[in-house]
């Protein structure tokens, strides 16, 4: 129990520590750890990933949509800690989460294809976990890239992709994408 709590907290807070080899645990624990990596820590922390507050806002948006479907005349601003959240901010959260998940999936697909071409034994879940852990800045992945393993078996192409994911995750995706737009560089 102690190792489970420690490793879960370590992954959600992106400290990178491990007290046990999580690859020896059940598939359910791997799934839980993967979910923790995607959820991320609190909004004020320096940890990576989507952040818990964005998940809370999305859950509240889903609840509001259900309420408005049942009662079309229902109008209520979405509130977080008692303060209303602007509709533009809600759209920005949805866009960020979709971009995050899309970049994570694309990175995993490239790593999976590259690994299969190079003959590296990698499952789709392990590729997705490696992509999510590096995009979230977590550190260890699952499988041979787990806390007691290494990212060394990945090829140079996969290493470049995973490094790019680390860069995108640390600086956030939207600001990096802004750097690559032409309108940003025009004075």
What's the short version?
This protein is mainly α and 187 residues long.
Would you give an account of this structure?
With 187 residues, the protein is mainly α. It has one domain (2-180). It is 61% helix and 2% strand. The chain is built from 8 helices and 2 strands; from the N terminus they run αααββααααα. The chain has helices at residues 2-12, 27-39, 52-70, 87-118, 124-135, 156-171, 173-179, 182-185, and strands at 79-80, 83-84. The chain has a two-stranded antiparallel ribbon with strand order 1-2. A hairpin with a 2-residue loop joins strand 1 and strand 2. Helix 4 packs across helix 5 (124-135). The radius of gyration is 19 Å and the shape is globular. The chain starts with a helix and ends with a helix. The model has no long low-confidence stretch (mean pLDDT 90).
Number of domains: 1
Spatial shape:
globular
User: Count of DSSP E strands?
Assistant: 2
Distance between the termini: 57 Å
**pLDDT averaged residue by residue:** 90
What's the layout of helices and strands?
Layout: H1 2-12, H2 27-39, H3 52-70, E1 79-80, E2 83-84, H4 87-118, H5 124-135, H6 156-171, H7 173-179, H8 182-185
Antiparallel strand pairs: 1-2
Helix pairs in contact: 1-2, 3-4, 4-5, 4-6, 5-6
